Task: inverse folding
């Protein structure tokens, strides 16, 4: 009888080119390398310096998202990109892709978007694959039962040159999510609660596998939101076993196998889920049914509370005190009703069509509060077209929100879409670190529903107050 | 990459836990296409105010920090973004080692690949280092020890492969490239 294996162990074993030894890490084959303008230029330079070719252009896909403008006149109208160095970086990616034969979904390409949104959309993200990218939110692709993790630029160069990485095997961490989420409580709230429980370094050295009834009930887009933020608990990767929901999402997408090859792929994918009796190195259990909408109050994603509760009081803890000073909030105060200035809906966490639908459903028939700037940035051009076909752009515009072209935008403010010093932003993105959305910006992470409700009221608002009449 | 054997230096102490890579180097400085010169922007929003003037109370702006090669940081240093610009900036500034009780995975990997030594120590040693900023410490990679000024030594964990690469100034790409036959065989087995 064979030893029961976790899904991670199965995917790992299937990609060992050379197994780990006492003296050397394993050589692991990479099935898909996604790359973008910010973390690739120095890796292409290494190829040039050493006279190396890029080994597998057929397994490499490039796009531009981090530093790209979101204003239509800059993306399509030829207006100059505001930040010179960003424009130069974009041109460098175009040259690098041309020189090394890499497919680039460039500035005006209809399939361009945030790298973690377009992989699944195109169907290049598939169960059982190893997927890497020079971006920590590569964990998103784990929603399909892929082993997907972020790497640094040196490793980007390794993959370009050899299609392999040197890796030590991670430990496994089962995240059991029992029960079902209540109406108005979203996968974003779930993952924020998990990070709050496990802590921002609780997953270090581990790969999460999200399991249980609440996970099974989620759509693929919702599963991506959960896996996306695995890194915020310190885990490099988070995985969800593929099932019929996964296969239904993938079937018929542009780059998914067709016909007999599809049937064959299904056969393989059905072997991936963790075997009964397999043991995780660690595990945690969360009761989904007990959760309410969550929102962060501090300067890391683990500083999070249920929206109806008060900011905790950990005075004397230097990290907490520094966070309170930076955020300009007070221990013991209700987080609800804190005034806000900016609302951002978008990012690889919550920039998919279902996220925009959720925000629009709350916003429909309402106005963004006076003095609040709401920015809605679709995760990809495909999401943008889908939203416009449904009239969601009209809902956002009529409410007074700003509707843009796709990109990472205000999640990290690299392209100039920033929050001003001292201002409060309710953001559907993934990081509330000091300065993340702009120098001195104060970020409160929440779901699209909470973001939209807060935009209407001009203060932190429980979306359930505005839902279903 | 320069081989690393022994690092002997006074320490700079930044006791905050969870110092993320957005603090080490803010995102707006990532629109560069080279690795050079990032030391100027290291901890930019803690070192400089909005007008670009130096904040004198920040540790790196104090005279005692000059020439220090060892950064002692609070638990879980380097969390967040995978940007390798973080170790590039620390190295360009002059740091050669980062010491903590816990170092985030991607930052730790990125540091090892650039010759910035991640040193994980026990709570008691860490507490002593936090309480004694500016202490002269010796980190020896050959014996994988960190030695305090009173002669007390503690071992730190490091896998044998990156240790070998750092001791010999070898980069890992050469090792991977030499695996070409095994990679070819794998590709042949998996060709559709």
Result:
């Amino acid at each position: 009888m064979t030893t029961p294996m976790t899904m991670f162990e199965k995917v790992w074993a299937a990609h060992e080119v050379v197994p780990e030894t006492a003296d050397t890490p394993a050589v692991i084959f990479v099935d898909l390398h996604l790359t973008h303008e910010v973390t690739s230029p120095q890796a292409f330079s290494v190829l040039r310096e050493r006279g190396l070719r890029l080994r597998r252009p057929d397994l490499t896909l490039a796009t531009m998202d981090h530093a790209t403008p979101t204003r239509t006149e800059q993306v399509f109208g030829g207006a100059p990109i505001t930040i010179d160095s960003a424009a130069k970086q974009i041109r460098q990616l175009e040259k690098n892709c041309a020189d090394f034969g890499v497919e680039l979904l460039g500035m005006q390409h209809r399939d361009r978007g945030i790298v973690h949104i377009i992989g699944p959309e195109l169907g290049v993200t598939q169960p059982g694959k190893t997927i890497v990218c020079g971006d920590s939110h590569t964990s998103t692709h784990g929603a399909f039962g892929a082993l997907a993790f972020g790497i640094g630029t040196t490793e980007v160069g390794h993959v370009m040159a050899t299609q392999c990485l040197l890796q030590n095997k991670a430990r496994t961490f089962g995240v059991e999510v029992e029960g079902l989420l209540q109406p108005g409580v979203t996968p974003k709230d779930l993952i924020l609660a998990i990070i709050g429980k496990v802590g921002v370094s609780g997953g270090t050295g581990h790969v999460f596998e999200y399991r249980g009834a609440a996970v099974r009930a989620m759509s693929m887009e919702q599963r991506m939101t959960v896996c996306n933020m695995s890194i915020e608990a310190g885990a490099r990767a988070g995985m969800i076993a593929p099932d019929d929901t996964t296969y239904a999402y993938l079937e018929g997408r542009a780059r998914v196998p067709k016909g007999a090859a599809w049937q064959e792929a299904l056969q393989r994918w059905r072997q991936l889920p963790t075997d009964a009796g397999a043991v995780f190195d660690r595990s945690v259990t969360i009761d989904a049914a007990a959760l309410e909408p969550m929102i962060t109050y501090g300067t890391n994603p683990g500083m999070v509370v249920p929206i109806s509760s008060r900011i905790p009081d950990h005075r004397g803890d230097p990290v907490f005190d520094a966070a309170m000073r930076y955020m300009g909030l007070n221990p013991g105060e209700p987080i609800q009703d804190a005034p806000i200035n900016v609302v951002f809906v978008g990012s690889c966490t919550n920039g998919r069509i279902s996220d925009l639908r959720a925000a629009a459903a709350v916003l429909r028939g309402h106005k963004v509060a006076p003095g609040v700037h709401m920015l809605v940035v679709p995760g990809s051009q495909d999401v943008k077209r889908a939203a416009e076909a449904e009239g969601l752009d009209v809902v956002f515009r009529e409410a007074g929100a700003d509707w843009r072209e796709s990109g990472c935008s205000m999640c990290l403010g690299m392209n100039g879409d920033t929050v001003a010093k001292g201002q409060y932003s309710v953001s559907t993105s993934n990081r509330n670190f000091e300065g993340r959305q702009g120098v001195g910006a104060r970020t409160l992470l929440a779901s699209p529903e909470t973001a939209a409700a807060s935009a209407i009221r001009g203060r932190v608002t429980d979306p359930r107050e505005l839902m279903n009449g | 990459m320069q081989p690393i054997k022994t690092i002997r230096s006074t320490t700079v102490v930044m006791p905050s836990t969870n110092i993320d890579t957005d603090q080490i180097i803010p995102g707006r400085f990532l629109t560069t296409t080279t690795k050079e010169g990032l030391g100027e922007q290291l901890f930019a929003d803690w070192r400089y105010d909005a007008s670009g003037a130096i904040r004198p109370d920040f540790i790196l702006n104090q005279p005692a920090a000059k020439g220090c090669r060892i950064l002692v940081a609070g638990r879980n240093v380097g969390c967040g973004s995978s940007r390798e610009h973080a170790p590039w900036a620390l190295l360009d500034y002059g740091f050669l080692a980062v010491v903590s009780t816990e170092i985030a995975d991607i930052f730790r990997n990125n540091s090892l690949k650039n010759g910035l030594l991640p040193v994980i120590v026990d709570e008691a040693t860490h507490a002593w280092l936090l309480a004694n900023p500016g202490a002269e410490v010796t980190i020896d990679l050959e014996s994988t020890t960190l030695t305090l000024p009173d002669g007390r030594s503690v071992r730190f964990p490091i896998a044998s492969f990156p240790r070998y690469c750092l001791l010999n100034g070898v980069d890992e790409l050469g090792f991977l490239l030499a695996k070409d036959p095994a990679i070819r065989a794998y590709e042949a087995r998996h060709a559709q």
